[in-house]
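INTERNAL AUDIT FORM
Audit reference: QA-55
Scope: verify that the stored structure record matches its stored sequence.
Auditor: D.O.
Record contents follow.
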Amino acid sequence: MEDAEWTMLPDLASRRVGGGVVWADDELFAERENLIKPGPPVFQPGTFGHKGQIYDGWETRRRREPGCDRAIVRLGLPGTVAGVIVDTSFFTGNYPPSASVEALAVSGYPSPVELSEMDWDTIVERSPLTGDAENFFSVTSGRRYTHVRLTIHPDGGVARFRVHGLPIADPSLLDPDALDLAALENGARVTGASDMFYGSPANLIAPGFAAVMGEGWETARRRDDGNDWVVVELAAEGVPRFAELDTTHFKGNAPGWAALSGKTEGDWTEVLPRTRLQPDTRHRFRIEDARALTHLRLDIYPDGGMARLRLFGALTPTGRETLTHRFQDADSL
């Protein structure tokens, strides 16, 4: 299951994209917020706090009565869930024997008490877990969700909880005349890249600024005459006005130049000609003679690292219709 295609999709629950653990019924040994930390869990034996061995995860006390423990996660990127990972790394004699996952679609910002009183969909039936391992579970529901609830039976520790899927934006919360057409949170996605040696190209379209170099996309050093590239399927058809190419944190390894091309169908056409870049800099360029696009290609010369790629513009009538139907179709299942 480690090779499941859905593991390449973004983690909708990650703190890096705005996820939050809004509630847990118990977190005596280790805090619930650790569940959605973006990095892999770490462990240092013999490191004790006043409650015992310190774990990089969520750990509840030993139950002495029937029941189970739960944590509710607000997705940073609401969307359809393709699969979840319940990671019990470093939990050996204290991992839960089994777990189940539910999901909920809700508007607004309900409190944990209000969430607990709503009807949840089961997306992963109660299933056995292996200790000190990543446990993979595929999800077949095509619904759009805003929250997920992890239940462990009966208690124990989970290091990380990953919720992989496709973001689906709510059109009522977007300005169709001014938005980032290439933003992951608006529904854009990376469909191809020449290289991802040091970082995923999906990082380019993630929300917010990159805090460190590792939160961007960086390729291996080329030893040939070629160049590296990324293709992004835009959130929907739109006409770009400005592009932002951000090399923040990349100093001795930024690309020397970059170019943008786009298409709706057929051949690629120039959006931004090959342009010189500076290291550790946010570059913004006006798009001249813009036309409607559904796909964007970034070429960097010859290789190197980029923190973020933005493409600001307006949706076409077709693009607005696409976004609306995508939301309504996933919301009505």
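Auditor finding: record pair retrieved intact. Residues 317-331 form the longest helix (15 residues).
Action required: none
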